[in-house]
Design brief:
- Among the domains are: 117 residues, Tumour Suppressor Smad4 (Sandwich), CATH 2.60.200.20; 99 residues, Zinc/RING finger domain, C3HC4 (zinc finger) (Herpes Virus-1, 2-Layer Sandwich), CATH 3.30.40.10; 106 residues, no CATH class.
- It starts with a strand and ends in a 13-residue tail after the last helix.
- It is built from 10 helices and 19 strands.
- It is α+β, with helices and mostly antiparallel strands.
- This is RING-type domain-containing protein.
């Protein structure tokens, strides 16, 4: 016996703003186009009699609704029992069963249809004002400019004044926010429009006319500007023999000044900026030495300069060996916080499981790296860009190693027989949404009572 839902009344021409999606594909969905609608049910598809079982009223936020039980029996909403005449708020993804239990009744998922007005409203809400402020004056950007390669943003007037002072006092211009060497600056028209919209939405953030006039008087950047560097005669290259023809020029990297390892930069050499130390190195395709992390595609210079037998100096930055090295050379003693989708209860179970087995975290990760190397693991969900190319010999950065550890510990847990888990772990039921569950991030009770180290059986990530 199943109950089939349908909306009462004739179809109207209003826009469909929500649906009750049947979880049984043999039955059709129920379209909802009115702000308030009564849903009827029939015991069998051939039955003429229909019974009201709930009323759905659209809420003012346009993203949720209120359900009132109109039937004589209790109904289930997200597993909660709703008695006759009682109400409960539902959101996109909520599950509704038109009866006191799932057996014998269809299950429906409440889905809110996307609307352009809602998307625009969400877009405006998602802009954080703090992320639209100049780090020099701490106000909303005015005539915003973007510097490269670090891509930080400032007021045109603020950065122009910083640029003037830097060029007067220093050999290089550094980013005011991260201290990376600035090579380029240009006006950013896209962010300029965003800043104007923020001011319109909140006029209290607008500066006085006097402040704006002063900023405009400082502004020097009218078009894209390449920023050069000049030689600082007080700084010496103790570890380099620089040719006289390069004297007076500030060189981006050590190989611009002299030949190292059989290579020397020329005027056409493209340089990469290291993500760890901010130093520069030539971008080379003629060598097998890794210059990019295969997990995130960011550049790291440590392996390259070590291959050139270059050590750290006062003038040129070189990142440490720990920042970028092969997976096989890495050690770990603590489970990263991001493991198991930041669920501390699941991390605790994994840690106790490892201790109970008489192993260390390093032992477990080493075992699973071997399985990874032997291609015994499905890499579909590996959170690294070039997942299929990853092996024990692959150089990756610290962030990507943490992501790899998260991936391997997930497989460690789901491959573990239940009798080897801590005694309290097997008693928990699996969450329908598994590792994709969002409730585990804001509900400690939900995060601890259900197992989330499992595959989803509901939702879009099945």
């Amino acid at each position: 016996m199943v109950e089939v839902g349908e909306s009462s009344g004739a179809k109207n021409s209003q826009e469909i703003w929500a649906k009750l999606v049947s979880l049984d594909s043999r039955y059709s969905d129920v379209d909802i186009s009115s702000d308030e609608i009564v849903i009827c049910s029939e015991i069998r598809s051939s039955c003429v009699d229909k019974h009201e079982w709930c009323k759905i009223s659209r809420n003012s936020d346009l993203c949720s609704a209120t359900v009132q039980n109109m039937s004589s029996n209790a109904i289930l909403v997200n597993g909660a029992v709703v008695q006759n005449e009682d109400t409960i708020v539902i959101k996109c993804g909520s599950e509704i069963v038109p009866g006191p239990d799932r057996e014998g009744y269809l299950s429906y998922r409440f889905e809110v249809m996307p609307r352009s007005e809602i998307r625009m409203k969400q877009l405006k809400i998602s802009v954080d004002v703090e992320h639209a402020k100049c780090s020099i004056c701490l106000n909303i950007w005015h005539d915003v400019v973007t510097v490269a390669p670090c891509l930080h943003n400032f007021c045109n007037g603020c950065f122009s004044e910083w640029l003037r002072r830097s060029q007067d006092r220093h050999s290089r211009v550094l980013c005011p926010q991260c201290r990376a060497v600035v090579q380029f600056v240009g006006r950013n028209h896209f962010l300029h429009n965003i800043a104007e919209d923020i001011i319109k939405a909140d006029p209290s953030l607008k500066r006085s006319d006097e402040e704006v006039s002063l900023l405009d008087s400082y502004a020097l950047i009218q078009s894209n500007l390449v920023i050069g560097s000049r030689k600082d005669p007080s700084r010496k290259r103790a570890h380099l023999l620089v040719d006289e023809e390069n004297d007076g020029i500030d060189l981006p990297c050590p190989q611009c000044g002299t030949e190292l390892g059989g290579f020397r930069c020329n005027q056409n050499t493209v340089h990469l900026q290291c993500n760890a130390c901010g130093g520069m190195m030539p971008s080379r395709t003629d060598i097998s030495i890794p210059q990019h992390c295969l997990g995130c595609d960011r550049a790291f210079c440590g392996a390259y300069w070590r291959a050139q037998r270059l050590t750290r100096g006062d003038l040129h930055s070189i990142c440490s060996h720990e920042a970028f090295k092969p997976i096989s050379e890495r050690t770990i003693s603590r489970i990263p916080d991001a493991v198991h989708e930041n669920n501390r209860h699941e991390r605790d179970i994994t840690e106790r499981c490892i201790i109970q087995m008489g192993k260390t975290l390093q032992d477990v990760i080493s075992d699973w790296v071997v399985k990874l190397n032997n291609r015994e693991i499905d890499r579909t969900r590996m959170p690294l860009i070039h997942a299929e190319m990853i092996s024990a010999a692959t150089h990756i950065c610290n962030d990507c190693f943490d992501n790899l550890v998260s991936f391997l510990l997930y497989w460690f847990r789901i491959s573990m027989p239940k009798h080897l888990l801590p005694s309290d772990a097997p008693k928990r039921e699996d969450c329908w949404y598994g590792y994709s569950c969002r409730t585990q991030h804001h509900s400690e009770d939900h995060a601890s009572k259900l197992n989330h180290v499992c595959r989803p059986t509901r939702g879009t990530n099945m």
